[in-house]
Amino acid sequence: MKLNVQLRWLFILASFPLGIAYAQMGRFAGGVPGMAQMQSVAMQRHQIRTLLYREALEELRKNPQAADVPECSPGSVDKDALCLRRPESAPQSLALPESPPKTSATGSELPVQPAALGKIPQAAASTQAVAAIQPTPAAPIASSPPVVPAKIAAPQPRRLAVLVGNNGYTMPIPTLETPIADVEKIAEVLRTRFGFETRVLHNATKAQIVQALNLVADEIKPEDNVLIFYAGHGYLMDDTKMGFWIPVDASVKTAANWISNTDISKLLQAIRARQLILVSDSCFSGSLTREQKMSVDGMLKSDEILRRRSVLALSSGGEEPVSDEGKEGHSIFAWNLITTLDKAQGTTLGYTVYTNVYGQVKKDASQEPQYGAVVSAGHMSGGEYLFQAK
Predict the structure, then answer these.
(1) Please, which pLDDT band fits residue 369 given cuts at 50, 70 and 90?
(2) Percent of the chain clearing pLDDT 90 (strictly above)
(3) Distance between alpha carbon 265 and the CA centroid of its chain, in Å?
(4) Strands annotated E in 48-110
(5) Selecting from 3.40.50.1460, 3.90.380.10, 3.90.330.10, 3.40.50.720, what CATH number does the domain 159-388 have?
(6) What's the mean pLDDT in 75-86?
(7) Are the beta carbons of 339 and 331 closer than 8 angstroms?
(8) 162-193: per-residue pLDDT in tens?
(9) Where are the domains of the chain?
(10) Which distant-in-sequence residues (6+ apart) come within 8 Å of 385 by Cβ?
């Protein structure tokens, strides 16, 4: 269907960066726009996007599962298939010791014997059995020094970050300016300051995003630490409140290549790491944080937190459009996240990172970052994400 001239102009307007819209408003309003004017411009842009996506949205109203990805068949190993990994049983919290460690008469802690590690090695068990049937010698017999059981090294937790930056959309979906620069810089900070292995995707399609997260689900163990970052277009349906990521191969005519919050939650659920956070810098990303808001009330100690399954989401805004403008080539949200993480020392609560970013973003934009637990992906009471600097 051919677009009329008015709608063509709306599409052109929708592609303007928010900062340009603010500047234009300043000319007509006689000065720098205030917060109310900024919010008005942002909501007008949302209305324009609603017109832009009207055919895909109509499809979703008729079939709310139009964007959903099927689960992978049991035993499937095809890494190129567009399906969601089936979540294994969610990692449980680590059991606390049922009784205190045994101590000697002097009060010092006794060394852990092999039996305390689950079972006695076969060789040791055989020696004990032989000793039990041998007569006690009449005189002391010189013996070699006792063998001290070797300590079993605890598995080293892995830190893995997957970052998606989408700039290159096909018109009429507007291109973006900062996501690729954002993910590159955040990846650098995560590597150098926090010791993360990083995987960065530029201009990723729906299949590439799903496959990248499926791969994480295949590799990661419960003791590992995973961070996922998405920067690109997003959309929230006004009536159903269902949120979506808009990959670069998305269409305005069908939602088939959109990624729903439902599938995002399933992708998180399949990743068995006890430490897992999703950071989303996109319009209407706050819909990911609604399940359970976080606070510092009754916060546990770090070692207790690490025993629990923690699935957190940090978003660049609530249920409103967010700005693609910022500082030094980064979005407002990404810039403040970068500076916050770059200054972090030791172990920092995710909630602390959020409150700092929130305060800084609120000074510069009409968006409000959000932080919450994704209970549907297995978050456990008392859990929290810990940023642990090297």
Answers:
(1) very high
(2) 53
(3) 10
(4) none
(5) 3.40.50.1460
(6) 81
(7) no
(8) 999 999 999 999 999 999 999 999 999 999 99
(9) 5-52, 159-388
(10) 275, 276, 277, 310, 312, 349, 350
